[in-house]
């Protein structure tokens, strides 16, 4: 079942345990406990989800022109520039980070998306080096949870030589997304290489203990977010529900070229921000500025991104 309305998405988030009780506003856990001796670098950011060790791992970054062809499609350039300027962001080009996430849970070492590999040239492909800095080798990865089948998320599943980059990992995605990726004819060599490792699941499934798929519709046919729960803490990996920390958050209704079904994606995005703001959800945004961890807060009639560690946003009423 694919749900698109605000109420339906809210129901899914609530059923996934992401409601108002998710955590207490204003009592954020320390991002990195003082006792945490893990390596931190420009490309590796360790953090905790409850008792689980997690990392943001840089794969690269994309720049797209602010000319109405990719983001805020069809909107007057003056309006887009004014929004970006008011947020203190350069108006051109628009920068999109690429940072897959790693979580260790039980005896599993779980990668959330695989970066671009060689699919985007020098814009991506740093993930294995970032993993090495974090002290993790490719053969230690047991599971890769894919949000969707675009090149900046699945390209890194294979090496430049076309072999499996993570030979011991099950590659997991929704059945709908795998069917769409196979049918698209794109990345046919990659699809053939990963086929023996792919395991699909249904929307909303508990994919691994403590990790639940949360369908967020509109970007691709089977796009999914993932909720990770440890004790009374949680984090929602939002995949490509949003791409830019200003445009996608403050104007969720503005069309983004990457969204396959823009109207559905826009409704899903607005519903996600409503739930995230009202439920004080901790989010991980793969394309937001490094390391992509934070909260969405209400700001007047819309929303604003508050990166973790930044001064709390003063709500406007
Ligand atoms: Zn993406």
Set down the secondary structure blueprint.
Blueprint: H1 6-15, E1 44-49, E2 52-57, E3 60-64, H2 77-86, E4 94-98, E5 101-105, E6 108-112, H3 127-133, E7 143-145, H4 151-154, E8 170-174, H5 175-184, H6 188-194, E9 198-201, E10 206-208, E11 211-215, E12 224-230, E13 233-237, H7 247-250, H8 262-279, E14 283-284, E15 293-299, E16 302-307
Parallel strand pairs: 6-7, 7-8, 8-9, 13-14
Antiparallel strand pairs: 1-2, 2-5, 3-4, 5-6, 10-11, 11-12, 12-13, 14-15, 15-16
The protein binds zinc ion (ZN).
Explain what this protein looks like in three dimensions:
- By secondary structure, the chain is an alpha+beta fold.
- Helix 1 (6-15) crosses helix 8.
- The chain has a single domain, classed as Ribonuclease Z/Hydroxyacylglutathione hydrolase-like (Metallo-beta-lactamase, Chain A), CATH 3.60.15.
- The protein has a 7-stranded mixed β-sheet. A 7-stranded mixed β-sheet has the order 10-11-12-13-14-15-16. A two-stranded antiparallel ribbon has the order 3-4.
- It is globular, with a radius of gyration of 18 Å.
- The protein contains 8 helices and 16 strands.
- Mean pLDDT is 90; it is low at 1-29.
- The protein binds zinc ion (ZN).
